[in-house]
Amino acid sequence: MKKYILLIIFITLSLTGCAGYKELNELSIVTAVGFDKKDDNYELSFLIANSPKEGTSSKEGEAKTTVYVGKGKTIAEASKEVEQIIPKQIYLGHINVVIISEDISKEGFLNIADWLLRNPETRKKFYLLQAKDTSAKNILKIVSPLESFPSQSIATLIESNAESKSIATSVTYSNFISQILEKGYDPVLPSVSIKGNVKKGSNEKNLETTEPESYLVLGPLAIFKQDKLKGFSTEKESSMINIIKNDAKEINYNVKYQNEDISIESSKLKSKIEIKDEKNVTIKISGLGDIYHINNKIDIQNYKEINKIEKAWSKQLKNDLLKVIKKIQTEYKADIFGFGNQIYKNNPKKWEKLEKNWNNQYFPHLNIKIETSLKINQTGSLVKTIKEDKS
User: Fold this and answer.
1) Do residues 215 and 254 share a domain?
2) Is residue 352 part of a domain?
3) Is 187 inside any structural domain?
4) How high is the pLDDT of residue 11?
5) What 3-state class would DSSP assign to 320?
6) Is the separation of the CB atoms in 105 and 77 below 8 Å?
7) Of 345, 350, 359, nearest in space to 230 by CA
8) Predicted local confidence at residue 28, as pLDDT
9) How far apart are CA 334 and CA 388, in angstroms?
10) What is the mean pLDDT of each run of 10 residues along the chain (391 residues)?
11) Is residue 7 part of a domain?
12) Is the Cα torsion angle 117, 137, 241, 228 positive or negative in sign?
């Protein structure tokens, strides 16, 4: 009896699979979406994963992806125009990346957020990125030799950079919206730009070259005040911001010591923000670092020497952190560190009095104190530098 039941289950699953395959074959699967603004019209770009034509192999026939663009006074109108162009039914359940242009972000992300939120097919866990110095449409067109689809190339770029670098961090749609809606918290987004020629980079021949004509680069953080883009940090500033926000998983930091650069790699930096009151904040930074590059003859086996390097590291990092905090306070007046959010959580009644004028009156004049506890963990596998061995 059990054998018959198992056979029925197997047949049912097989039939379901076939039906599902046929259904997917009749859909235009959107893997990425781009939002642009041009001449008072919205431009909505859909990156579609093409299914191969019947009778063609994976190496011939159509390109693997196509970008379709629709225009309209509203996002809904632009979406309708795209639907009229694409021959198959659009399916948004597999979106993994959404790119927004600078024009869109400066007007306000919430203008397009509603369209994404109301669509029942989207999972709301896709990556969100800010286009920098180019359109979102162009970003979607760049193909990479390392990935079959541009959207996957972007997703991989985000994930690898979030793990191995401190400049960028991964932000999903849900993360971004929650930060906008949080009291006393302004969001940031990783930016993405194009290096090289856009037209050549969108050609499938870009996949065949040993050195691509153009490629995507994950750039510095985009600074938002509520849902509006205010500007971009530098790469170094982005690293400092991520340290404060506890989003720096790994950082390579150059310390000036005895007029030479010492490279310290740390993957265990931690930040703790303590709110004294609405005027005073203390940020405690702790962590271990490994010396992995040194240029001059420094005795790295000497404890006293290591202690001096630790102090130099601590002093320089403090200065860099305070410098970027001051810039955010004065130029952007956007509490991307969530100082106000901690006040709200600790004392909601006090926050009620501060909330209205927090960004423009209280946040810019916060007294920030940074305390560090930084230790050199290892000095690398070589006791002497190569330069010393040759001497």
Assistant:
1) no
2) yes
3) yes
4) 38
5) helix
6) no
7) 359
8) 83
9) 49
10) 42 43 70 92 90 47 74 94 88 90 96 83 84 94 63 73 71 92 95 79 50 80 97 95 90 88 87 93 95 75 89 96 98 97 95 96 97 82 49 46
11) no
12) negative
- Three-class SS state of 112: helix
Quote the pLDDT of residue 72: 95
- Cα angle vertex 228, ends 176, 74, to 5°? 90
Are 118 and 196 part of one and the same domain? yes
162 and 170 Cβ atoms separated by less than 8 Å: yes
Degrees, nearest 5: CA angle 183-230-154: 95
**Torsion sign across C-alpha atoms 303, 306, 312, 315:** negative
Do residue 224 and residue 263 come from a single domain? no
Domain boundary among 232, 267, 292: 232
The model scores a pTM over 0.85? no
Report the domain count for the chain: 2
Centre a 10 Å sphere on the Cβ of residue 315 and count the other Cβ atoms it contains: 13
Q: CA 215, CA 137: separation in Å to the nearest integer?
A: 14
Tell me the β-bridge partners of 375.
288
Residues 389 and 250 reside in one and the same domain: yes
Phi and psi at 51, nearest 5°, equal: -85, 140
Can you read off the two tokens belonging to residue 296? 């001059």
CATH number at residue 253: 3.30.300.210
214-225 and 188-196 beta bridge pairing: antiparallel
Mark whether 247 and 330 lie in a shared domain: yes
CA quadruple 154, 116, 168, 36: dihedral positive or negative?
positive
Report residue 266 as tokens: 């740390």
Q: Is the dihedral of CA 364, 318, 170, 130 positive or negative?
A: positive
Q: 358 and 319, same structural domain?
A: yes
285 and 218 in a common domain: no
Domain extent at residue 261: 237-391
Q: Which of 232, 255, 286 is the last residue of a domain?
A: 232
Q: How many angstroms separate the CA atoms of 238 and 63, rounded?
A: 36
Do 186 and 317 belong together in one domain?
no
CA angle centred on 304, ends 302 and 309, rounded to 5°: 95
Asked whether 184 and 339 are in contact (CB, 8 A), the reply is yes
